[in-house]
Amino acid sequence: MYKIGEFIVYGNDGVCRVDDISELSIGGSSKGKTYYTLKPMHENGTVFAPIDTTVFMRPIVSYEEVHKLIEQIPSIKEIDHDKKSVRELQEYYKKLLKNHDCMDLLTVMITLKDKKNAAATNGKKLSQMDDKFMRTAKNLIEGEFSIALGIEKDDVELYIDDSLEKM
């Protein structure tokens, strides 16, 4: 069970702060059921999640873990998109995004960023689906890293680039 004040990754809502843990009587909810009251850190609103939800939840990575992940970026092996069908790639990207593992998210983000740059070199664009996967992975990574590093979400990409340059 998570604690009040703790930051967690909650499904595709990204990073949320646990603001309360209590029984709620929301229309249609089971009486006596305990819920987390979650505050998305990069979105408006409130999320009420049963503590026994099947939605993916985990604590955010630590400051130290973020730096270890950044150090591993140069060794990330891109997904070989030439050997898989579009459908296979989409299913694979979905699976990696659903894992909410930072290394998987970085792999998707870097693979599709490089694919986008290669397409631009040839006067083409990234497909809408690939662009959506790239933006989703980037949003999740930047949201989590911003909280762990104590910086603004919009500054994460520059922080990663600066860290890589210093290596």
Automatic annotation (TrEMBL):
Pfam families: CarD_TRCF_RID. Residues 1-101 form the CarD-like/TRCF RNAP-interacting domain. InterPro entries: CarD-like/TRCF_RID (IPR003711), CarD-like/TRCF_RID_sf (IPR036101), CarD-like_C (IPR042215), CarD-like_regulator (IPR052531). It comes from Terrisporobacter mayombei. This is CarD-like/TRCF RNAP-interacting domain-containing protein. SMART domains: CarD_TRCF.
